[in-house]
Amino acid sequence: MLGIFCGMEATSDEAYRKYVKRRILALAGLIAAGIITALVALAAEYVWTVNVSDLMLGVYTGVGMGLTAGGIVLLIKNVLLLKDEKKIRRARISVSDERNIQISIRAVRAAVAVLIAAMYFTILIGGLWYPILAKIVSFLLILFLFSYVVAYRVISRMI
User: At 73, phi and psi to the nearest 5?
Assistant: First the structure.
């Protein structure tokens, strides 16, 4: 199974090794974001004079700890992957397999369709009670569509 942000065309084990090293750096950033999120929640509760509900403090702390823990587990998994040549080869073949890439692309398309429909219904129904919600979700929908168009044009020039 490939993740949403996984999938590449590695032609050699060395190219895949470089990709894994970049992924390790990204995971370090994910861990840092998790730690910062948890620290902000703790600072909001104990240091700052911010009026935040206990529910939201729990959400921020949980998200921060989850990002940190998940990042650490994946970082360790990738470091161990780099140490085993056989695992590197199998992982590279799996990631660059055309069938897996097509499955991933179709799954992302289906998830995007569901997300756009959910955003539309949030705008339509949620906006009746909370007009600001309709504005925020509308902005996010427009941002998504705009970023898609820009990314499409940039990537089409690169390929």
Answer: -60, -45
